[in-house]
Give the backbone structure.
Amino acid sequence: MKVTVVGTGYVGLVTGACLSDVGLNVVCVDTDLQKIENLKNGILPIYEPGLQNIVDRNFQSGRLSFSTSIKDVIADSDIAFIAVGTPQGEDGSADLKYVLSVASDIGKYASNYLVTVTKSTVPVGTAEKVKNAIDTQLENRNLNFSLDVASNPEFLKEGDAIDDFMKPDRIICGVESEKAKDILSKLYQPFVLNGHPLIFMDIPSAEMTKYAANAMLATKISFMNDIANLCELTGADVLSVRKGIGSDSRIGNSFIYPGIGYGGSCFPKDVKALVKSGVEYGHNLRILQAVEDVNDDQKNVLVKKVIQEFGEDLTGRSFAFWGLSFKPETDDMREAPSIVIANELIQRGAKITAYDPVAIDEAKIILGNKIAYSDNAYSALQDADALLLITEWREFRSPDWSKVKSELKNSILFDGRNIYDSSALKSKGFTYYGIGTK
């Protein structure tokens, strides 16, 4: 079975690499010549634990290759995944121009039956547009065969993408024919040997499942952040509340950790896109609008706590950031709370020095020279008025507190992820601010 994956971003590269790792012949296609040349030389465009080894191993074996031409590889493909970007439009909707452009190219160059699979996160109804784009080109070529279209949304967590692909909770496939179902069943057979469910459904339901899943997780995060803020006002401790509700099997412990809001490439964009879809169909998704509003506000929670301690005018104040990426184990800065927090503090006259294990280069693209950057956690603390824990990287979990204290001008800590023991730190002479904690 030969597989073509169009798009070598986060989803496309992980998909192509993992499929090749179970023995399939995979070609990853991208129009960016430099990106393709880099991949051929072992230079990946993203940071994802474990991905480098898989790409290197399968490229060397010949199972994984890279190309800039759909025309050159699509003719003998059995499956073509569309895994290109769906950037957010100004109105919050998903921009499908890249998806439909790939679909059109598949129709221009396909010479035999294949299954075209949308892997990108796309609104309900996109597969129908993909089908129309392909059929239009086939008709222009006077060809009398048709191609099946399927939806196979990804459920990859940045930082855990390899495990998520290799050992999925579930694989969702929306299909329109038994032939497409059979091909996808064969494709994913290596990934369901241990009982992981392969769930087939109609295409619109598969498209909706992806959005509904991310929207539900985002809802849990915003709900817990809202409760944390109320805990501070009432004197309750959100850490105790979290344990109390998380022990209920109907709720569970996942995604109920309060913090400074969600970011990344999925949750913000998908919530906005789903809200926009609701508007288009005349149905206001009021809960999700509130989820988005709460998340926007939550990114300012640490700013409010800094102002509470130091006042509105932060001229002459200096702050250390530990972490910049939106979550650990990724260099992704898209919609990261660190961006909002940094800009708000800078507007009030503050200076910031930040350290992140992998996201410094991305941060420099986004924040530029508005902040300073350090090459280790402790040097970022020098003469800072306070430390702000932004991203809960493992290396920040058990620091040398005596060294932290000696480097800081003031022993003040703003814990944006509630990873530290407030009582222990207070006993060491720190002023501690958490999220919804005492």
